[in-house]
Amino acid sequence: MNCFGLSHTLYIIYLLQFLVNGTHSRLNLKYAILKQTQTSSLQNDTFAYRQQTKYDVQKTMRVIFYTNNTKTMEASAFDDKYDLKGSGCSTSDKFAIVLHGWIQSCSDEWATSLIERLSYYRGGCVICIDYSVVASLSYMRLYTNFDTLTGAIASIILTLIRQGFDPKRGYMFGFSFGGQLASAVGRSLWPHHIIESIDTCDMAGPGFDPIAVDHSKAGRHVQCFHSSRDKGTFVYSCHRNIMLGSCGLKQPSVASQLHLGSHGLCVDIYINTFDYPFYALNATPSECWSLQKAAKIPEGYTVGYEENYDSQITGQIFVPTSLHYPYNLSKKELLRLLAKK
Fold it and tell me: Which N-terminal stretch is annotated as signal sequence (predicted)?
């Protein structure tokens, strides 16, 4: 009797445990399904939001073509094919891409000056990609659209490649935020399409540093000019890192060009390298620290846009600058500086 009662009790407990566990399992399964549905819905909402954001950004972007320093055509970033006859560009020519920075556009003075220099010295087709509507927002808003802009610009370049432009004849320049875009776009195209040459000027640091990025993967030859400590990046991973002025952190000329600051002077100096020699030091200055090896450079080496890139010259290159326009030092001034040191 007692045994029967005990067995019956154990059976009841087992049955209740089974029902509880079963119910608990069904609840877990129901919750898991509900959670999965909510996650899926959230992902769909996020995807839809991203697609809308991408559309909103791209619809304001313009692709502006220049030949012989003359604006020939302006197209939408949405175009999947460009009227190259109307642009005056030929796929057998070189092509250059120009990317501006925050609160800037393709109409900025430095952009029009660079387009003129590239047209004269390099020739071919010059294309400025204008995203000034997004760039006119706060820096944080622009930064949150970084991936969207990267994808949109990469799509534009892929469209050009599909129409016959050869990346081996390609060049890309980016200033500040545009410098980070140039690197990201180049890396997104790699390794299927490798832009031959990429130059950046004081690539933006805020929002991007200290994340280590291998900018050398952006193109076959990547050289980055550095000019400021407050707005420029401290990630020196380009094939060449050209440290302007005082260790790439400050420009003496900021005293006479306060409106530009050390950051803004970078692009002015880069443009001046087309017409004036900016001589490099053949060793790292004692007051400058270096995490990258110093480049071995020949006597009288000058920096700037380089048509025939010497891939043997890699590493950090220090280039002193002067107080007044065009901000370069003559050979005589450079020797005098070295003698003082």
Answer: 1-25
